[in-house]
């Protein structure tokens, strides 16, 4: 489990964990809860070039479809195959085993702090 | 006609609202009501109903009391079915039609006495249904139409363990043993000094019961049912599970498969319109004429994979958008539209109901659903998608 206070966040309800030039990306517990049980996840392929702020994947629950936005510019270095096989990991461990992508980036844009994100979602 | 759009009126709350808050439910707006969408996991709630039982609060549904010596004749005129013919304690699915033969609401009618009926309407159609029934009652001398929704709570127990749970519920005494109450039949009951109407009806495709209870008694009855259900795998279930359950069971939902401009026959509900009954009824002339032969008809669609076509997604007869565009040098109209769709929790693949051109409605027809730009192949199948095993 990642320490949620040390993560960065986006207004699109993604979390970002920075390790060197690699960013691990997932969606927040708040977003997972709003979606309901996630049943399908579509992620970009390894090697895909992401442009920050654009839609790069889909997260479907029984009731609705959520879009995954790239939080930063970069290249996908790894996708979480486990979460594609078992999308409910997004619900059970959104900050842990339910991570989605790893991205190599050059520039880190300004992201929300944990406190700012909590304020955004009213928690 | 009343305005069907949501109004800015304050949210309504079920008499069980505090119970749901205490249970940690997530809420959603449904026709102006704040109702539980899920308690923990909608998939777990869905599966509980298929394998054990689920406990639903349906207190947002509208109840209308129709009483008086003319009640039967009035309902025969006001609704599409022949309600005067149903037996005491029997239930019947029916439709409230407009003059054009379209659907104002779909309802369940219970005969609770020789001259007493309970009409249960959708929450979102409460005002429209009450208004239509009241207007149509004007031509009858001895009938009273009364909206009793605010006094009545509705709790459903759905799933194979339902009967055992009701039989084990402390304080719930039924007039007839539940083993003798068949599907679409009812029995009276008492609970805590008040009366309860128990109907073997539901909207999930499973065996189950719906309990109409005075609003002040709802919390105690909910608690007693929940306690009795502990040993039977009963869990509270929200509207998300209710929707996927009814979709698997191929049951129409007003506003999706049914509406004011849709003939029942298009939705496969032609048999609900009793053209053979004597006397006039609202919508008879239009119903006898029926829909245009080219009018779209409701079909079931299944697909492979896990990407579900959802409400509003267009359906095409071909996979290749480009080729058709080139050929016609213009927009290609879709051959249909999905009205409800989801990844079926029970079956594990996408299912949908869709209105399609009649030429494409035969079982086995290959169609293509536009899922956000990707054409997903789908096959027309017979409804329902899921049918419970016979017991």
Structure description:
- The complex is a heterodimer of chains A (123) and B (391).
- With 123 residues, chain A is of the alpha+beta class.
- Chain A has a single domain (4-117), classed as RNA polymerase II/Efflux pump adaptor protein, barrel-sandwich hybrid domain (OB fold (Dihydrolipoamide Acetyltransferase, E2P)), CATH 2.40.50.
- Chain A is 20% helix and 35% strand.
- Chain A has four helices and nine strands.
- Chain A has helices at residues 29-35, 81-85, 89-92, 114-121, and strands at residues 8-9, 14-19, 22-27, 38-42, 49-50, 55-61, 65-69, 74-79, 101-104.
- In chain A, strands 1-2-3-9-8-5 form a six-stranded antiparallel beta sheet.
- In chain A, strand 2 (14-19) and strand 3 form a beta hairpin.
- The two termini of chain A are 20 Å apart.
- Chain B is α+β, with helices and mostly antiparallel strands and 391 residues long.
- Among the domains of chain B are: 12-61 and 151-248, Gyrase A, domain 2 (2-Layer Sandwich), CATH 3.30.1360.120; 292-381, Aminomethyltransferase beta-barrel domains (Elongation Factor Tu (Ef-tu), domain 3, Beta Barrel).
- Chain B has nine helices and 21 strands.
- Chain B has helices at 17-22, 42-51, 71-78, 126-137, 162-167, 218-229, 239-248, 284-289, 321-328, and strands at residues 12-13, 26-30, 33-38, 53-57, 62-67, 91-97, 103-113, 116-121, 144-147, 152-158, 172-174, 186-191, 194-199, 208-214, 234-236, 297-303, 314-316, 336-343, 350-356, 366-371, 374-381.
- In chain B, helix 2 (42-51) packs across helix 7 (239-248).
- The longest helix of chain B has 12 residues, at 126-137.
- Chain B is globular.
- Chain B starts with 11 loop residues before the first strand and ends in a 10-residue tail after the last strand.
- In chain B, 48% of the residues are buried.
- Chain A binds chain B through residues 33, 36-37, 39-40, 42, 58, 60-63, 65, 88, 91, and chain B through 26, 37-38, 41-44, 46, 240, 243-244, 306-308, 310, 342-343, 345, 372.
């Amino acid at each position: 489990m990642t320490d949620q206070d040390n993560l960065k966040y986006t207004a699109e309800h993604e979390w970002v964990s920075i390790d060197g030039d690699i960013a691990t990306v997932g969606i927040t517990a708040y977003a997972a809860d709003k979606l309901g049980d996630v049943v399908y996840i579509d992620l970009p392929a390894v090697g895909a070039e992401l442009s920050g702020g654009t839609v790069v994947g889909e997260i479907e629950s029984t009731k609705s479809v959520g879009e995954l936005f790239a939080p930063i510019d970069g290249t996908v270095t790894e996708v979480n195959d486990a979460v594609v096989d078992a999308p409910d990991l997004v619900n059970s461990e959104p900050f842990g085993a339910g991570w989605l992508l790893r991205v190599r980036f050059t520039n880190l844009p300004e992201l929300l702090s944990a406190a700012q994100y909590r304020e955004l979602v009213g928690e | 006609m009343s305005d069907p759009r949501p109004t800015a009126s304050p949210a309504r709350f079920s008499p069980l609202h505090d119970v749901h808050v205490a249970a940690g439910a997530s809420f959603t707006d449904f026709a102006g009501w704040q109702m539980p969408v899920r308690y923990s996991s909608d998939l777990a709630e869905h599966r509980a109903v298929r394998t054990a039982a689920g406990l639903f609060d349906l207190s947002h549904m509208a109840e209308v009391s129709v009483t008086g010596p003319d009640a039967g004749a009035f309902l025969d005129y006001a609704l599409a079915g022949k309600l005067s013919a149903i037996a005491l304690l029997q239930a019947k699915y029916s439709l409230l039609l407009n003059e054009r033969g379209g659907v104002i609401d779909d309802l369940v009618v219970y005969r609770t006495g020789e001259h007493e009926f309970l009409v249960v309407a959708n929450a979102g159609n409460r005002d429209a249904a009450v208004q239509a029934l009241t207007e149509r009652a004007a031509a009858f001398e001895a009938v009273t139409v009364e909206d009793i929704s605010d006094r009545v709570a509705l709790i459903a127990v759905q799933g194979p363990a339902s009967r055992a749970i009701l039989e084990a519920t402390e304080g719930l005494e039924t007039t007839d043993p539940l083993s003798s109450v068949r599907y679409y039949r009812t029995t009276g009951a008492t609970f805590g000094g008040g009366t309860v109407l128990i109907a073997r009806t539901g909207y999930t495709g499973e065996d189950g019961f719906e309990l109409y209870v005075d609003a002040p008694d709802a919390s105690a009855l909910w608690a007693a049912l929940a306690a009795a259900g502990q040993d039977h795998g009963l869990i509270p279930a929200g509207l998300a599970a209710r929707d996927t359950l009814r979709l698997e069971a191929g049951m129409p939902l007003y506003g999706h498969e049914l509406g004011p401009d849709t003939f029942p026959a298009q939705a496969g509900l032609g048999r609900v319109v009793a053209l053979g009954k004597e006397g006039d009824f609202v919508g008879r002339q239009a119903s006898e004429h029926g829909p245009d032969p080219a009018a779209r008809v409701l079909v079931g669609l299944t697909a492979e994979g896990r990407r579900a076509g959802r409400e509003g997604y267009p359906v095409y007869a071909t996979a290749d958008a480009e080729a058709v565009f080139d050929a016609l040098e213009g927009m290609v109209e879709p051959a249909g539209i999905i009205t409800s769709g989801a990844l079926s929790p029970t079956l594990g693949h996408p299912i949908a109901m869709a209105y399609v051109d009649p030429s494409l409605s035969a079982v086995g027809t290959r169609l293509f659903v536009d899922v956000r730009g990707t054409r997903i192949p789908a096959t027309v199948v017979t409804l329902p998608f899921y049918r419970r095993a016979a017991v």
